[in-house]
Amino acid sequence: MHTDYLNTTIRQLRDQQVRFAPREKKLEQVAQAEKLLGELDPRRTYTYEYVCYRITNFRPEAALPLSIPGNVACHDLRLFVEDVSDSANVPVEDAGQRVLTVEELANQFNVSTKTISRWRRLGLVSWRFVMDGRKRVGFLQSSVDRFIEQNPERIRRGSQFSQLTSEERERIIERARRLAAAGATPADVTKRLSEQMNRSVETIRYTLKQFDHDHPQWAIFPESHGPLGPEAKRKIFQQHQRGESVEELARRFCRTRTSIYRILGEVRARRILDLPLDFIPNDLFPKVRSQRREQKIIGPLPPNDEPVKKSRLPSGLPPYLASLYEVPLLTRRQEAHLFRKMNYLKYRAAHLRRKLDPDRPKSGLMEQIERLYDEAVATKNQIIRSNLRLVVSIAKRHVTPAENFFELVSDGNMSLMRAAEKFDFSRGNKFSTYASWAIMKNFARTIPDELRRRDRFRTSQPELFSAAEDERTDQVELESTQHQRETQVQRILNCLDEREQKIIIRRFGLQRGEEPLTLKQVGAELGVTKERIRQIETRALSKLRQVVDEEKIEYLS
Prior knowledge:
Layout: H1 8-20, H2 23-39, E1 45-47, H3 48-56, E2 67-69, H4 70-88, E3 90-91, E4 99-100, H5 102-109, H6 113-121, E5 127-131, E6 134-140, H7 141-150, H8 152-159, H9 166-181, H10 186-197, H11 201-214, H12 230-241, H13 246-252, H14 257-273, H15 291-298, H16 319-322, H17 332-353, H18 363-398, H19 405-422, H20 431-455, H21 462-466, H22 475-493, H23 498-508, H24 519-526, H25 530-551
Helix pairs in contact: 1-4, 2-3, 2-4, 5-6, 9-10, 9-11, 10-11, 12-14, 13-14, 14-18, 17-18, 18-19, 18-20, 19-20, 23-25, 24-25
């Protein structure tokens, strides 16, 4: 039942009477308010002066030119009667007439207490009396008689439905379960059972809702009651991303379209809050106040004024590494432009994200943040593509018979991506210099660690090493080995389901042209937490090891 006043002046009148009116005056005003309630027409409009005079027999000192809709006045006067009678502490014995409790009234009309609560909202006036030492809601017999006289059809309709027996309730639950298993929605089930059982729709709905609440492990419509969990919300968002309409999602998850739109906005906002928007600050960014200056920063790449020299292709490179040399190198001016653009786009996105309210997200703001982030990622990828040959060049200098060239390239690519995030173009250095030190520093750290691990398994007989043949292979053999490795990887990946394959490919960069992603990045892409990605990755790797062992697939280094 609605317990908030809709009109502030009536609430203020209630406060005055509760605090200052003597007990006899309170009872008199309660009786007059109840009498006025029986005369008000919800379709008309009344002045506050009229309402106040009818209750207190006094007109307000300062006449308020306030009009109150009849339905609002009826609603607030019912609350006025209950609140003021509560403050009067009236023993039930002093009521002067019969007083019925909610339960007694429900038994008299053979209806549920929920129906009584609905009648109270429709005009049945209730007082508060002291019964057995505590306050309880009670109904004067005169109030009940007046409500019966004004609502004969409602009383007849409510009384014709007796309360459910245990057998009827069980039949409703069983039939609802069968209909739900056949794919019927809660609305369809409620309507059909109402016709079959000769019960009101409200009775059927309340029965099913109460059963699901009391027995969550056997709930008929578990998704239709209570708030949805994070996993269910992510599922809704993913299915909408795949093209499922809001209407279909609302039907499947037993929600309104408004609820689905709200869930989509909430999940989308959470994903935006998790975007990696760290940027290198620059004094220029806060000073950009015009669209013209901003366009100068995020505009197209400046042309290369110098003649482009065709890069000399190193001998012995596989075709997919040779393709890196088709991407032209950046000039110092172009490089500075791209780094300035990438960091400014992140700066703008991070600044706008501070305005995002995850509880009430605005779609326009989210679209703007996502667009800026996508442009920043595209700019970063352009920088990385133009410098991938640097990784190949450094890896060729560090490769040894004991090292795998392709592993060095993969490790160097990760260092290159981290360097692109940390490079400050405003210091005047070239990115290739900064990235070279980052890649070589990583090699210097990881290669000795690898050698130390291998030393643990070396034999103590040095003559074996002196007699060992040179196992270095030519480039054709390297490429053949790589092809065999890719074939084996694809073969064992087929044992995974679609989501597990996607996570393993994203995490380890198994698809050409794509870089390895972190747990957080993969989680953002798939709409789940990074912890959930870690769990799925662990399970998938366990499956892969089992397949390798069962099929006796040879590991290739």
